[in-house]
Amino acid sequence: MKQKKSSINVLWIAGPNSKFKIEGAKAAGFLVGFWHGIIAPLIFLIGLFVPQIKIYETNNNGKWYDFGFLLGVGAFGGARKAI
After folding, report:
1. Domain residue ranges in the chain
2. Cα torsion at 67, 3, 17, 24 (round to 10°)?
């Protein structure tokens, strides 16, 4: 999928305007997966009203992206102390 640089989003949000969809771009890695995990709850809510926004980047490098994504999702809500 070929895109103009001006249409690329600057927040690294997954979707059709992702910088990782540009022809010849490197696949999203661990840090991008971590970022997408952190913003996943907010992006989910936005994605309910804007169908172009996605939670998960499909052009990723595999297991490292997945690992970062899971760490990001669990970073703020995964560890709760039982009283």
Report:
1. 5-74
2. 0
Sign (positive/negative) of CA torsion 15, 17, 19, 22? Answer: positive
Assign 9 a pLDDT band (cuts: 50, 70, 90).
low
**pTM (predicted TM-score):** 0.76
Q: Which long-range contacts (CB under 8 A, 24 or more apart) does 62-68 make?
A: 64/29, 64/30, 64/33, 65/27, 65/28, 65/29, 65/30, 65/32, 65/33, 66/33, 67/30, 67/33, 68/29, 68/30, 68/31, 68/32, 68/33, 68/34, 68/35, 68/36, 68/37
